[in-house]
């Protein structure tokens, strides 16, 4: 299981998702450019001391990410525009869950390239959850379904 951050806008959200991934033992792909300076110093501030426990790969663009040579499973987009509930979706152990930019999600070309899309059901008058909260909910369900939750001992 992996978590991909598509051009993250807000360093605090990116830091929260990096910490989440480190705690869950999930690798992270960051697809640049980001909406903030992605220096090691800024990442350390956002991710605190959790980054030393994290497998993270930075990709300079969507194209570089899409053309990466390593084996990969399905790419699943977390979006308010999906028809499938995240709780009803059947995840695979090698899936990558991708979140979009806080300011606008992902462009149509990225949406067209994914293998699946899920959303979190919400009250009708609400627009969206925080991207880090969304990542936590969906990642938790995906790890539960694939028996990849970390041991508690």
Protein described:
This protein is an alpha/beta fold and 153 residues long. The protein is built from 5 helices and 6 strands; from the N terminus they run E-H-E-H-E-H-E-E-H-E-H. The protein has helices at 11-24, 40-47, 62-66, 108-113, 131-145, and strands at residues 2-6, 27-31, 56-59, 75-78, 96-99, 116-118. It has a 6-stranded parallel beta sheet with strand order 3-2-1-5-4-6. Helix 1 (11-24) crosses helix 2 and helix 1 runs parallel beside helix 5. The protein is globular and about 40 Å long. The chain starts with a strand and ends in an 8-residue tail after the last helix. The model has no long low-confidence stretch (mean pLDDT 92).
- What is the H-and-E element order? EHEHEHEEHEH
Q: Kindly state the mean pLDDT as a whole number?
A: 92
* Helix share, percent: 25-40%
Number of helices: 5
Taking the alpha carbons of the first and last residues, their distance comes to 21 Å
Summarize the main sheet.
Answer: 6 strands, parallel
**Strand order in space, largest sheet:** 3-2-1-5-4-6
Structural class: alpha/beta
Stretches where pLDDT falls below 50 for ≥5 residues?
A: none
**Residues in β-strands, percent:** 15-25%
Number of strands: 6
Shape: globular
What integer value in Å does the Rg equal?
Answer: 15 Å
Task: Please outline what is shown here.
This protein is an alpha/beta fold and about 150 residues long. Helix content is about 30%, strand content about 15%. A 6-stranded parallel sheet has the order 3-2-1-5-4-6.
């Amino acid at each position: 299981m992996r978590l991909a951050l598509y051009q993250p806008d807000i360093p605090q959200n990116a830091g929260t998702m990096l910490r989440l991934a480190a705690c869950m033992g999930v690798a992270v792909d960051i697809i640049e450019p980001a909406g903030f300076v992605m220096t090691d110093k800024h990442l350390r501030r956002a991710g605190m001391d959790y980054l030393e426990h994290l497998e993270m790969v930075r990709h300079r663009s969507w194209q570089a990410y899409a053309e990466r040579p390593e084996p990969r499973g399905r790419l699943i987009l977390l979006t308010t525009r999906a028809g499938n509930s995240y709780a009803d979706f059947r995840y695979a152990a090698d899936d990558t869950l991708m979140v979009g930019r806080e300011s606008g999600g992902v462009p149509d070309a990225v949406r067209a390239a994914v293998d699946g899309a899920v959303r979190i059901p919400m009250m009708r008058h609400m627009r969206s959850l925080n991207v880090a909260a969304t990542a936590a909910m969906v990642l938790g369900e995906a790890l539960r379904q694939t028996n990849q939750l970390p041991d508690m001992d």
